[in-house]
Amino acid sequence: MRGALLAALCVTWPALGQSLPAGVKLGLSGFVQVDATLLDQASQDELDPASREPLNTERVDLRRAHLRLEARRSFLGAAFELDANTVAGPALRVIAAELNARLPSDDDSGSPLTMAAGLVRIPFGLETRELDPQRPFLEQASAPRALFPGSYQLGAVARGRWQWLEGELAVLSGEPSGAAAYALQAPQHALEFAGRGGIIVDVHPRVQLSAGLSGLEGAGFHAGTPTTKDQLVWRDANGDGIVQLPEIQVIPGTAAEPSGTFRRFALGADASVRVALPPCTVLLAGEAVWAKNLDRALYPADPVATGRDQRERGYSARLLVSELPLHTSLGVRVDRYDPDADASDANGAARVPFDASVSTWAFLASIRLEQALRLVVEYDRNHNAFGRGPDGAPASLASDALTLRAEVTF
Amino acid sequence: MRQRAHEPACGGQVAPGFALACGVLCAVLSPACGGQTDTLGTSAWLRVPGATFVAGPLPDAGGGPSVVAASITRTEVYPGLGDRRVEGSVASSATGLALALEGDSGHWLLPAGPPDVQVPDALTLSAPVAFARTLPLGPRTLLVQAVDARGHAGPPFPIALQAEPITQTDAALAFTLTWDTEADLDLHVVAPDGAEVYWNHIAAAGGLLDFDSNQSCALDGLRAERISWTSAPPAGHYLVRVDTPSLCGEATARWTLTATESGVVSGQSRGQSIPIDTQGPHARGAGLLALELDVP
Q: What ipTM does the predicted assembly reach?
């Protein structure tokens, strides 16, 4: 399939009046993921009261269809990747686009230093750096999805590797591609700095260890408000449908408030051990993150609005046994994300600390057929704090999910 | 000690090792777990915005805190309309509240409010409530229950309600338009003398427009309009039109127009409004001719 597409591209290029310059190498790759959610306890045949978007998630979905074109000439290169999906209706968007330089060699395996600019992957932690088709589990854990939504951001990155050391350092602008607000926009000028340094060591012919520390430092944006006019509001307090003087309230207009910025940061640590136990391979990996005011997707942080910092904590750990008979894999992942370590809630007349975290146990089984096709079934047992129990305390709303995925890479 | 969210009702406390098997079994075998759960409470007669809906009756009373007082802003309630509020106070040992209509499919849970400055040793009870369009007419009982931190519920506190029809059904002549989505539809009736009753001329020839529902897409949940004559209507030929000023973002609106004379259905028509129907003027003379009726 890839050969056919590449051939078509090479045939089309001269037809457009262009000739492929000498020394230019083209590469075409991609993948398609189709999900069938067989069970989702949170799904309803209803619309969201606020957004009017469907709440049903028990459906067939084109989760991702990526097409990546890479061009290289000597040490210079460029890559462009598109994503089509139907997660929230049909959508086509740029997922990655970068120009890069590999120094000093143009050999893929031998370049100790790569520099890239454009829409680049955020160099932080484990799952944020992991490419979608390489991730064994269906989606990222909650913490990377909240803190680094979309995993891509505009900026420049330098990636280096020397012997058993590896490192990445990025200067980023604006918000990530999956941010709840201002995605791939920059409402304020401050740059963000992110990086990861680590090791990757073969401690034994069958055991490979990698570990790293990550950090991010930047600024977030608090949107100001425009001037508002006086408003006259009627509240039918006694429900008689008749306007009475005590039920009329004047809401005075307010002066405009300026926008502002706030500091945000994250620190992370990750480690993985890969053990070859022929015929199978065992991977044990995990990461932890400690952040402040960095949630940009699930519970967006705005300390200017709330008057206090929002401290986020998260971790995930996974065990994956792959290359089992019939090219099958089995895995389990536990992850937990606390979007606000200082959250509080009413408990009678008192306010008490409140655990707002979400956590998931994910159980996975997959089989690979014909090299290119992978079938995955994953059961997610979710715990959250979205509901209320009989005692008025936060309670978990049932939201377990069972999903089947078919994936083809080319 | 941080307050930790309880486990969900469906599935309960399950060891992670059994979760995969549970999920597969739930999906294949058990409609109770595998089926969709109505966490929005859209199937219930009572709606409490911001609260958690739980299917089934109120918790059994068992030595929990009591409701000191509770009342509703007005005891007459109308199917499809909200804007009522339950107010009161509960014993200070309460941490949670449960609200339900007697005979409803479930109940609503929410936390108790802050201390009541007017009642010593009591917490406030305050909750907005709304009533579904499917609420049966007649006397109803709203039950309010207080629950303490150990989950012990107190005795339910009853509030008597009267569910009444939003419009009279025994009018001498009435044209009632209802529709199925949150669109803004308008009812126009042309009386035999040529006078037209509609949103900008709500009374003419003895007829009166009771409600202008979803006016300018300000959603009111009613999705109904009615023009009625409480006394003998003028004899002659009536023209009834359905206009669609806006679909308010909806794709379509399927409507039903019913004419009743002294409560007896004398004519009915059905149709569907689509985006093209929103074009053009929406004042006098607007709309699609939906029904003609001769009154002797």
A: 0.71
A363/B contact by beta carbon, under 8 A: yes
Return the DSSP state at A181. S
B153 & B177 share domain? no
Residue B287, CA distances (Å) to B28, B186, B208, B252 in order: 50, 8, 18, 15
Of A326, A376, A378, A334, nearest in space to B24 by CA: A378
- Model confidence at B193, pLDDT cuts 50, 70, 90, reads very high
Residues B152 and B224 in one domain: no
B9 pLDDT above the threshold of 50:
no
What is the distance in angstroms between the Cα of B102 and the nearest Cα belonging to chain A? 18
Q: Which CATH architecture has domain A2-222+259-409?
A: Beta Barrel (2.40)
pLDDT at residue A391 greater than cutoff 90 = no
Q: Which residue of A has its CA nearest to B60?
A: A390
Select from A356, A335, A334 the least CA-distant residue to A345: A356
The DSSP result for A318-373, as a single string, is: EEEEEEEGGGEEEEEEEEEEES-TT-EEEETTEEEEB---EEEEEEEEEEEETTTE
Q: B80 or B290, which is more confident?
A: B290
End residue of a domain, out of B163, B192, B214: B163
Is pLDDT at A235 greater than 70 in this prediction? yes
Interface check for A354 against chain B (CB to CB < 8 A): the answer is: yes
Residue B217 has pLDDT above 60, yes or no: yes
pTM of the predicted model as reported, rounded to 2 decimal places: 0.76
CB B239 within 8 A of CB B190: yes
Residue A364 main-chain phi, psi, to 5 deg: -130, 145
Q: Is B16 helix (H, G, I), strand (E, B) or coil?
A: helix
- The pLDDT value recorded for residue B1 is 53
Q: Per the structure block, which two tokens stand in for A59? A: 């459906």
Size of interface A-B (CB pairs under 8 A): 170
CATH number at residue B113: 2.60.40.10
CA distance B123 to B112: 7
Is B11 within the bounds of a domain? Answer: no
